[in-house]
């Protein structure tokens, strides 16, 4: 089956789906599934805009609300993970995943689903070591700290995913796995994004948690976004025993969704022809959720996951065959995910703007139903209970000074990761950077930019589509200095590139790309996400 993979969507759903329609018209290629690797921005209304961690001037409504309201429907089943620029209050309603609109499914904080027999997993957010060992304690209305920490990856999600034993076909993360750049054309990457150099050379670019998952899961494909640059790599995994067959992962990072950007990739994936066309639960993943339910934490206290170190009575929470069988029996062997999307917030109305509406903490019926069916803890219900008991709100400010003393974790229990890099510590001119001290961001305002009732036809400018061959191959680390011409001659890089239908270049918004990575704490600049070309890219 054909799978389309997109990078940072930034709420531009109309543009993304227009591109898929263009692909079908021009090449008679119709994807069966669309995957989006974060920064999806499922913004329903003005309150959601205020829960998105970007400066106020970048808070634009975009077009998701049309799909949420039912005015439009996604033409292809869409599965996405969260990034670091999301309506966190909306996605928080679905910690275990669920429908954000008809035919658009969110994987949750972490999740695994099946489609036509293909096993698809993912983890939302980006890595920050000072929040990694905390629970999911945040809830709206957010403050200047929690609006950011809400999208930070937590160790419990990584721990759950590491309990999986069965093979994963596709895995998605927003930020890149650390060290993956050593398995692709590193020279070309630094040619396009020179400000990555210091972190690449010091091996601090990307997420160590994602790297840990990559080494454990060894998926056939791994897709990421976040850094707004196209990059492919091929990683051959080491085998643990002579009996184990060698495995390899084809990694691909996608660019952001903009005209003249190579933001969309089409790949052919082997699937089960006898499987249905519905999105399905993964029985092993459900069994892991049930096994790890006792580990759910909604406090901001730092804690470590169980491990075999003599301190924990139990450290293996992987699903047994019996546990998986029980899940199948509970579902009567019908794994189809119910189409139970429900509106939980008012939809944006361009004729009646509500600029001062306050975000509220919502319990989503989908999550309630899911937890009741499988005997799981509703994280939002637990947060709500804790909030009512006064054990959540107001704690962050009291612990702030203590956290500043040790940004890698609590003083008593240092984090297993001794760095605080998520791929954003470099100044990436294509990324929306957040000022650590708050900067010009104002959580009390939002800039609503209503979409027109009849959006323009993007087919004239969205043609940067590449169709991947059966094997996505790039140079090994031994061939980093090879030129693109040499790669093509050796057959190491074969991609079908479509020429742009509109050759008119767009002017860049923003400018200087010279970052000072030597400074530990960088005051991050606010840059426009809608830029056309990288100034430092050499033709």
As a percent range, the share of strand residues is 5-15%
Overall morphology: globular
Main beta-sheet annotation: 8 strands, mixed
Q: What is the percent of helical residues?
A: 10-25%
- Neighbour order of strands in the largest sheet: 4-5-3-2-1-12-14-15
- Per DSSP E runs of 2 or more residues, the count of β-strands stands at 15
CATH topology: Purple Acid Phosphatase, chain A, domain 2
Overall structural class, as computed from helix and strand content, comes to alpha/beta
Mean pLDDT, nearest integer?
79
The CATH superfamily appears as Metallo-dependent phosphatases
Q: Write down the CATH class.
A: Alpha Beta
Count of helix runs: 16
CATH architecture: 4-Layer Sandwich
Could you give the distance between the termini?
Answer: 34 Å
Number of domains: 1
What's this entry about, in short?
This protein has 539 residues and is of the alpha/beta class. The chain has 16 helices and 15 strands.
Explain what the structure shows:
The protein is of the alpha/beta class and 539 residues long. It has a single domain (2-392), classed as Purple Acid Phosphatase, chain A, domain 2 (4-Layer Sandwich), CATH 3.60.21. The chain has 16 helices and 15 strands. The strands form two sheets. An eight-stranded mixed β-sheet has the order 4-5-3-2-1-12-14-15. Helix 11 crosses helix 12. It is globular. The two termini are 34 Å apart. The relative contact order is 0.18. The model is unreliable at 396-415, 418-426 and 434-539 (pLDDT under 50). Keywords: Hydrolase, Iron, Manganese, Metal-binding, mRNA processing, Nucleus, Zinc. Belongs to the lariat debranching enzyme family. It is found in: Nucleus.
């Amino acid at each position: 089956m054909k799978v389309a993979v997109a990078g940072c969507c930034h709420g531009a759903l109309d543009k993304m789906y227009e591109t898929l329609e263009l692909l079908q018209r021009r090449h008679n290629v119709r994807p069966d599934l669309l995957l989006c690797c974060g920064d999806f921005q499922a913004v329903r209304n003005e309150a959601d805009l205020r829960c998105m961690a970007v400066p106020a001037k970048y808070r634009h409504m975009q077009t998701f609300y049309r799909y949420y309201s039912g005015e439009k429907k996604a033409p292809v089943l869409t599965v996405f993970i969260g990034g670091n620029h999301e309506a966190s209050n909306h996605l928080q309603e679905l910690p275990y995943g669920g429908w954000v609109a008809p035919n658009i499914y969110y994987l949750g904080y972490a999740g695994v689903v099946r489609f036509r027999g293909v096993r698809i997993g993912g983890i939302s957010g980006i890595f920050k070591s000072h929040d990694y060992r905390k629970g999911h304690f945040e809830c709206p209305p957010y403050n200047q700290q929690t609006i950011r920490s809400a999208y930070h990856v937590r160790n419990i999600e990584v721990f759950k995913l590491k309990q999986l034993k069965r093979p994963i076909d596709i895995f998605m993360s927003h930020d890149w796995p650390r060290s993956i750049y050593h398995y692709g054309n590193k020279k070309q990457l630094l040619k396009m994004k020179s400000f990555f150099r210091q972190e690449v050379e010091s091996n601090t670019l990307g997420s160590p948690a994602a790297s840990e998952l990559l080494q454990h899961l060894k998926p056939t494909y791994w897709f990421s976004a976040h850094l707004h640059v196209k990059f492919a790599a091929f990683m051959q995994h080491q085998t643990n025993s002579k009996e184990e067959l060698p495995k390899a992962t084809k990694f691909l990072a996608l660019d952001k969704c903009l005209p003249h950007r190579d933001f969309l990739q089409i790949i052919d994936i082997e699937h089960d022809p006898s499987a249905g066309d519905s999105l399905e639960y993964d029985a092993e993943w459900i069994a892991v959720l049930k096994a790890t339910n006792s580990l759910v934490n909604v406090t901001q206290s730092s804690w470590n996951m169980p491990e075999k170190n003599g301190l924990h009575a139990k450290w293996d929470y992987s699903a047994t065959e019996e546990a998986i069988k029980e899940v199948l029996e509970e579902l009567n062997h019908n794994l189809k995910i119910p189409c139970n999307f429900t509106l939980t917030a008012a939809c944006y109305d361009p004729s009646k703007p509500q600029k001062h509406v306050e975000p509220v903490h919502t319990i989503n019926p989908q999550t309630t139903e899911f937890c009741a069916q499988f005997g799981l803890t509703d994280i939002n219900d637990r947060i709500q209970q804790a909030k009512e008991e006064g054990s959540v709100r107001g704690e962050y400010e009291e612990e702030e000074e203590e956290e500043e003393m040790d940004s890698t974790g609590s003083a008593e229990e240092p984090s297993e990761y001794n760095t605080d890099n998520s791929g954003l510590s470099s100044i990436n001119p294509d990324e929306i950077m957040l000022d650590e001290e708050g900067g010009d961001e104002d959580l009390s305002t939002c800039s609503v930019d209503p979409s027109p009732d009849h959006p323009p036809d993007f087919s004239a400018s969205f043609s940067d589509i590449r169709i991947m061959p059966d094997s996505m191959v790039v140079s090994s680390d031994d061939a980093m200095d090879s030129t693109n011409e040499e790669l093509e001659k050796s057959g190491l890089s074969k991609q079908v590139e479509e020429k742009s239908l509109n050759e008119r270049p767009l002017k860049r918004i923003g400018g200087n790309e010279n970052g000072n990575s030597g400074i530990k704490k960088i005051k991050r600049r606010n840059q426009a996400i809608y830029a056309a070309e990288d100034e430092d890219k050499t033709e």
